[in-house]
Write a sequence for this structure.
């Protein structure tokens, strides 16, 4: 290297530093990749499957995802995915309606599908949107399964949908802790307590069948 001309050594040094910086930036980006790549794939599928005869897409309200096993509950995961979806869909020309952060949508479980409840339809009319993007998630065999649907208002018709599954690493698993009054932690979050000790709020059981109404989590 010492035998090379000074300008050549400078070029090599600059290239080496560039590669080093790229490696550091790539390493930092990879830590955000699972959640971002999930939202990006959902945005791509929703855009590809959109069934409307006009462009741009309808005025869309995006709400928090809910736990499929507890439809009145969301989590930091259920709130973070829509935040990223807003960005990726807006970049694709979607007309996104801004609303209260952390807003959840109450779903009614029907025969083979989920229907929007009357209160969310009323909300849609008040915020002046044509469609609501909502969905569910669940933890299964080490993966997080996410399903979202774009539902037109007031027809209650699915005009686009998307489904993605990603491995639930440590960072994502911590985001699944449920938010909201009456939300029970999934078995993955149950704590092991000494024999004979009664479970507390952090170690819930499935013995209480009370049907809690939806509450906005903080």
């Amino acid at each position: 290297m010492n035998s090379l001309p000074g300008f050549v050594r400078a070029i090599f040094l600059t290239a080496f530093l560039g590669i080093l910086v790229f490696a550091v930036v790539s390493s930092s980006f990879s830590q955000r990749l699972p959640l971002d790549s999930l939202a990006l794939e959902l945005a791509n599928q929703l855009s590809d499957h959109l069934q409307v005869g006009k462009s741009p897409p309808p005025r869309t309200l995006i709400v928090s995802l809910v736990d499929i096993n507890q439809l009145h509950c969301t989590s930091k995961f259920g709130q973070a995915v829509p935040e990223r979806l807003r960005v990726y869909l807006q970049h694709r020309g979607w007309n996104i309606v801004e609303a209260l952060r952390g807003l959840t949508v109450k779903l009614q479980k029907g025969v083979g599908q989920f229907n929007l409840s009357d209160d969310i339809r009323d909300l849609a009319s008040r915020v002046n949107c044509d469609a609501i993007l909502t969905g569910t998630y669940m933890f299964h065999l080490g993966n997080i399964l996410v399903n979202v649907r774009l539902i037109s208002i007031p027809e209650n018709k699915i005009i686009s949908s998307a489904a993605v599954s990603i491995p639930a690493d440590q960072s994502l698993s911590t985001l699944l802790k449920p938010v909201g009054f009456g939300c029970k932690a999934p078995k993955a979050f149950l704590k092991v307590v000494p024999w004979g000790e009664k479970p507390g709020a952090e170690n819930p059981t499935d013995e209480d069948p009370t049907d809690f109404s939806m509450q906005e989590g903080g």
Q: What stands out?
A: The domain at 32-189 is CATH 3.40.50.10610 (Rossmann fold). The chain is about 30% helix and 20% strand.
